[in-house]
Design goal:
Chains A, B: GO terms for molecular function: RNA binding; RNA methyltransferase activity. The structure is a homodimer of 267-residue chains. The N and C termini of chain A lie far apart (47 Å). The relative contact order of chain A is 0.14. A 7-stranded parallel β-sheet of chain A has the order 8-7-6-11-9-12-10. A 5-stranded mixed β-sheet of chain A has the order 1-4-3-5-2. The first copy, chain A, has 12 helices and 12 strands. Chain A is elongated, with a radius of gyration of 20 Å. Chains A and B meet through helix 6 and helix 12 of A and helix 6 and helix 12 of B.
Chain lengths: 267, 267
């Protein structure tokens, strides 16, 4: 059972994990140096712990204690209890869903273990927006994808915003970083996957045709601004497009991913 | 040609349209009482003016003047020119894409005129998140939908965030508010549309089956939290679901819309 510790002073050093949650750069640096990540909201906190991540601590107003009693019962980590107002001073914003947890990151699994048994995989090159990363995980999980691989510069799925938008799918779906950007796609092809890059390139074929009858598929998605890099466009086995109305900007990457996952899941 | 007016004082009363852009409630009240909306970013500002909306004024740093010279040439509205730092003091945040415009809202068109000639229509009940509204417009426009109808409580497509996420699709796609929530769906059916509600209801059929061979379709989408109201669920001609993995939260409404638009466009 978690140790309940009432704290009234927002400056208390035990609250260091929860400071200035709106400062993205500061958080990135703190979270990677300390090996932690933050979960926000009752449902997401519960899923993080149920997903096997070890809590460092919890922070919540008294009214959230009952709802998370089952989760708090599974751990010896401290649970700091504060008024909402004091918690707001620590975090820098109004914590809508009340409960926060700081959890330990785990070493990333190998690409081989993430791909073991997988038939449908998402490969994210340089998606830099945490909301998009979270949305892609959520859609992938809902539409039957088995795993996610991230290029070295893709945004962090364990950043608070990614986790929240993913509704915890980052805990359910196996994922890891690709250690080698340059050889990533040829390695996937060698492992038996047909790599299908979603792109507006001239030689792209309709996504339904690109995945039709293919067994193991790796759907490759590029950055919000410039799409997939020339290296990856060239290295992918197929280039595919979602047919769109003339004169309209392409779909947002999260929307395009949802459509492509849907089509690929039904191949 | 717009009148270029240099302003150095952030407190200048001519800048009233641009104050405190992060304060959602204040903005809602100001924008509806003044009958204005704000466009942000060179591309979006250009599309708003090209879409026939009359500018009240522009606000930008000197470096954006050249890029928008074509747009500024079409109007007599004042263009306030300020340093980025001073502009930030007015708006309350760093204006990444530099240019802002305040434009006049127009009277909403009638439902009949929005539906004239339309074959694929989106109907949004109580989508309260501006990002979702914008994403839905963008996907609808890209995937071949002809019009959007909004229930009385749906979030404003002309709110700055909606416009930005929609990449200006709110200027291209005809839309209006439904004056009568209660009779909205029966009226659409009477106008020859098959209303298809996207829902997790037990009697929902696969979306592909629901729209197969249907001529005029109105795809009905509900709020992020509770989905479509019982009244609208009951009043819709068909209830449809996107097949999903067991045990996973449903898709985000913007992702679900993208998939449903894709399927419906190919019916």
């Amino acid at each position: 059972m978690a140790d309940l510790i009432e704290i009234s002073d927002p400056a208390d050093p035990r609250l260091a994990d929860y400071r200035d949650l709106r400062d993205v750069e500061l958080r990135k640096s703190l979270e990677s140096s300390e090996g932690l990540f933050l979960a926000e909201g009752e449902k997401v906190v519960r899923r993080a712990v149920a997903g096997g991540f070890e809590p460092r601590s919890f922070l919540m107003a008294p009214k959230w204690l009952d709802g998370l009693a089952d989760t708090l019962a599974t751990t010896d980590a401290p649970c700091y209890v504060m008024s909402e107002k004091a918690a707001e001073e620590v975090t820098g914003f109004h914590v809508h869903r009340g409960a926060l947890a700081s959890l330990k990151r785990r070493p990333l699994p190998s690409v081989e273990s993430v791909l073991a048994g997988a038939r449908s995989v998402l490969v994210l090159e340089d998606i830099v927006d945490h909301t998009n990363v979270g949305a892609i995980f959520r859609s992938g999980a809902a539409l039957g994808f088995d795993a996610v691989l991230l290029a070295p510069r893709c945004a962090d799925p364990l950043y608070r915003r990614s986790i929240k938008v993913a509704m915890g799918a980052v805990f359910a779906l196996p994922w890891t970083r690709l250690p080698d950007w340059y050889e990533a796609l040829p390695s996937l092809s060698a492992a038996g996957f047909t790599t299908v890059a979603l792109t507006l390139a001239d030689d792209a074929v309709d996504i339904e045709r690109a995945v039709e009858g293919v067994d193991k598929v790796a759907l490759v998605l590029g950055s919000e601004g410039h799409g997939i890099s020339p290296r990856w466009q060239h290295a992918s086995d197929r280039r595919a497009i979602i047919p769109m109305s003339a004169g309209i900007d392409s779909l947002n990457v999260a929307a395009a991913t949802a459509v492509a996952c849907y089509v690929t899941a039904r191949r």
